[in-house]
């Protein structure tokens, strides 16, 4: 069995590649960073170091790596004969992956079992997004080519921090992981991924993950950055940050209980586990990594505006989430292109235009006014 995985970064090597290997797949990594591809292709194995309680070392072997920038034909050939394609590149990069998967489908034997495609990004419906880009590229051929693949959305959860310079291809991760995958598209032929669970309706799982793990993480990052902290664990040791994170997560939990029927007890336990993971002292995770790409994180259906908008639509409180949005507006990182753009947009756009362009909130939405006030306050 063979899996082609696009994006050999932190979660690609530290989670997706590892579990595919443990499921018995030969993993072919594809990335655009030449030294990373060369190092992976030259190596016989790499080690995933799980740090913190219950962690152990896991070794990944039997993989190869190909550059999609330098050898797109070779990548298409691998996709054509693979059983599985996964991605972990970031939601905004999926449009660049689509032509490669499509080129593989064009070469695929129409009689072969359908290619099982799963995007593993922090976004709702990421696999649908990838399939949508493929459809645009395929044009009139889509009906014929799409019959050669099945597309399943997923929710992946494991904290994989940025890796220290000189760590090579080994990866340090937390021991915890969860991978929920839509069952329906596969019929009777589920991919072999140990530890993954297949669910009939992914909606509640992806929203619970994105609006708890990622909302809480973003809250710790933005409130922590404002408090001058560098690491997520250090940020949560600060009472004001911990209280801000707790307030935001009380609100998202109330939404998830109302919308998806999770019990308040389930959500209390879920939050407890997650906050324990964020506090893992062995995990060198930073506010810069977790706060990265603030424009994406402030967009309409993402971890802050998404649950806050839904909360106010239901008459629930969103004050804690708004406090995190306020801190997100202050997030600065000269190394992060979106953080630089955010600063520019705050200076250049009138508050109402900023809200429309950055958050996508409709002018008449009950959340638009409060967010506009946060922006306006910065204009003096
Ligand atoms: N790190 C985590 O804790 C974590 C956990 C769950 C989900 N995720 C999600 O996984 C995705 C990747 O996150 P990450 O932390 O591994 O980021 P990362 O930056 O470490 O890895 C992304 C990789 O994608 C590669 N890439 C970029 N453009 C590409 C292209 N056109 N073709 C092929 N490869 C390309 C990059 O070179 C990089 O190696 C994101 O959507 C993120 O939200 C991350
Ligand atoms: O990857 P992002 O930028 O969407 O979010 C940053 C972190 O919150 C995220 O990577 C978490 O570590 C991960 O989602 C945990 O499962």
TrEMBL record:
Keyword hit for Disulfide bond: no
Cellular component GO terms, alphabetical: cytosol
Annotated positions binding NAD(+): 3-14
Enzyme class at the top of the EC tree: oxidoreductase
Alphabetized Pfam families for the sequence: Mannitol_dh (PF01232), Mannitol_dh_C (PF08125)
Keywords assigned: NAD, Oxidoreductase
Domain Mannitol dehydrogenase N-terminal: 1-193
Domain Mannitol dehydrogenase C-terminal, first and last residues per copy: 201-343
GO molecular function: mannitol-1-phosphate 5-dehydrogenase activity
Superkingdom in the source lineage: Bacteria
InterPro entries: 6-PGluconate_DH-like_C_sf (IPR008927), 6PGD_dom2 (IPR013328), Mannitol_1_phos_5_DH (IPR023028), Mannitol_DH (IPR000669), Mannitol_DH_C (IPR013118), Mannitol_DH_N (IPR013131), NAD(P)-bd_dom_sf (IPR036291)
Swiss-Prot/TrEMBL catalytic activity: D-mannitol 1-phosphate + NAD(+) = beta-D-fructose 6-phosphate + NADH + H(+)
Keyword NAD listed: yes
Signal peptide: none
EC number in record: 1.1.1.17
GO biological process, alphabetically ordered: mannitol catabolic process
Family: Belongs to the mannitol dehydrogenase family.
HAMAP family tied to this protein: Mannitol_dehydrog
PANTHER family, per database record: ALTRONATE OXIDOREDUCTASE-RELATED, MANNITOL-1-PHOSPHATE 5-DEHYDROGENASE
NCBIfam families assigned to the protein according to its UniProt record, in alphabetical order: PRK02318.2-5 (NF002652)
Name of the molecule in the record: Mannitol-1-phosphate 5-dehydrogenase
Native organism: Nesterenkonia xinjiangensis
Gene name linked to the record: mtlD
């Amino acid at each position: 069995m063979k899996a082609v995985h696009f994006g050999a970064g932190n979660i690609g090597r530290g989670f997706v590649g590892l579990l595919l290997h443990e499921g018995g797949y030969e993993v072919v990594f594809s990335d655009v960073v030449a030294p990373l591809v060369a190092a992976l292709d030259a190596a016989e194995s790499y080690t995933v170091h799980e740090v913190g309680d219950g962690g152990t070392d896991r070794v990944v072997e039997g993989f190869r790596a190909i550059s999609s920038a330098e050898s797109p034909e070779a990548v298409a050939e691998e996709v054509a004969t693979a059983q599985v394609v996964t991605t972990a590149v970031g939601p905004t990069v999926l449009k660049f992956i689509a032509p490669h998967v499509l080129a593989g489908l064009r070469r695929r034997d129409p009689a072969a079992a359908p290619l099982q495609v799963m995007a593993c990004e922090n976004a709702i419906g990421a696999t649908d997004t990838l399939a949508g880009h493929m459809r645009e590229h395929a044009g009139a051929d889509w009906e014929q080519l799409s019959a050669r693949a099945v597309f399943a959305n997923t929710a992946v959860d494991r904290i994989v921090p940025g890796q220290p310079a000189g760590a090579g291809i080994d990866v340090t991760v937390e021991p915890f992981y969860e991978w929920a995958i839509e069952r329906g598209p596969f019929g009777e032929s589920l991919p072999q991924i140990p530890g993954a669970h297949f669910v009939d309706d992914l909606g509640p799982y992806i929203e619970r993950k994105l609006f708890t793990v990622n909302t809480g993480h973003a809250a710790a990052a933005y409130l922590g950055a404002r408090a001058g902290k560098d690491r997520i664990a250090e940020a949560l040791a600060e009472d004001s940050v911990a209280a801000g994170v707790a307030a935001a997560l009380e609100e998202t939990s109330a939404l998830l209980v109302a919308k998806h029927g999770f019990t308040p007890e389930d959500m209390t336990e879920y939050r407890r586990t997650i906050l324990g993971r964020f506090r893992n002292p062995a995990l060198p995770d930073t506010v810069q990594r977790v706060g990265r790409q603030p424009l994406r994180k402030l967009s309409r259906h993402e971890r802050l505006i998404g649950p806050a908008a839904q909360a106010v639509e239901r008459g629930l409180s969103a004050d804690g989430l708004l406090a995190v949005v306020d801190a997100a507006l202050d997030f600065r990182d000269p190394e992060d292109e979106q953080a630089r753009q955010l600063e520019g947009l705050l200076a250049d756009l009138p508050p109402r235009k900023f809200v429309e362009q950055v958050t996508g909130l409709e002018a008449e939405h009950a959340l638009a006014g409060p967010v506009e006030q946060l922006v306006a306050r910065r204009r003096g």
